[in-house]
Design goal:
There is one protein chain. The protein is an all-alpha fold. It has one domain. It has 7 helices and no strands. Helix 1 packs antiparallel against helix 2. The longest helix has 26 residues.
Length: 146
């Protein structure tokens, strides 16, 4: 999963700019943060995973600890993105604040849903909303550098 994420982001970055230290920092940060949150996907199908003998974090640790991890991570990602990605661009502070607010909102919604709406169908929507935060952080680049 990590290698695929790196390959996709590197391929997308390369036509716009060289794969320099800035590119590597963005790719590394986005891939690690998003990969750590993927564990939430297993909460949706614990019955199916158990039936086929899979050992997922949701089955080994329990769904609630995975939900707490997911919510904490989505709360921390905007801070990490600000420190490692947004602020170093030197962009106008209003643009940085816009990206910070957009990412915080995009992360907070699925974080709260993961803790409050604990059923299979809402979990599917929560996971899809988490993907929006991935899109928001990637969209921040053009906003900050334009």
């Amino acid at each position: 999963m990590v290698a695929g994420g790196v390959a996709i982001l590197a391929a997308a970055w390369r036509p716009a700019d060289p794969l320099d230290a800035v590119a590597r920092q963005w790719i590394r940060t986005v891939v690690v943060a998003c990969s750590l949150a993927l564990v939430f996907e297993d909460v949706r199908d614990t019955g199916g995973d158990r039936a086929v003998g899979r050992r997922t974090a949701a089955l080994v640790l329990g769904a609630w600890p995975v939900r707490l991890w997911f919510a904490a991570l989505l709360t921390a990602i905007p801070v990490v993105a600000h420190i490692l990605l947004f602020a170093p661009t030197g962009a106008d502070p209003a643009r940085i604040a816009l990206c910070d607010a957009a990412l915080a909102t995009a992360g907070r919604v699925p974080a709260v849903r993961a803790l409050v709406l604990r059923h299979r169908d809402p979990d599917r929507v929560t996971y899809q909303l988490y993907i929006v935060s991935y899109v928001v952080v990637l969209s921040a680049g053009p906003v900050l550098w334009s």
